[in-house]
Amino acid sequence: MNINATLFAQAIVFAILVWFTMKFVWPPIAKALDERAQKISEGLAAAEKAKTELAVVNKRVEDALVQSRNEAAARLADAERRAQATIEEAKARAAEEAAKIIAAAKAEAEQQAIQAREALREQVALLAVKGAEQILRREVDAGVHAELLQRLKTEL
After folding, report:
1. pTM value?
2. Is there a contact between 102 and 108 (Cβ–Cβ < 8 Å)?
């Protein structure tokens, strides 16, 4: 065989191989590569979108945390104010009760002093009657001399 004919045959086979590859092999490979590139770009876009959404969500979470901390602080301050008001109210009620108890005790002590004075007057009147009885050596009738005894009680 001739070298030129071999070269020519090889060039034809190569051209057929290039044509076959361009017609049947290359389009599916190019299509697969294009699809892969598109999926990668979509994935990168989705990742970027997710990154921005994450930043927005993180901002919302931070805002919610700040708001809940503020609300908790406000509720705590309100609870402290209520507790202080309750304590003050209890102190005021206790002071009122103490004043009532003291007033009642004073009234009771005064009543007992009055009763003791009355009892003492009664006893002094009886002693005076007995003393007068002893002096007169006769019995003094309390019923008959009631007015005299009453005047004696008031004078004492």
Report:
1. 0.43
2. no
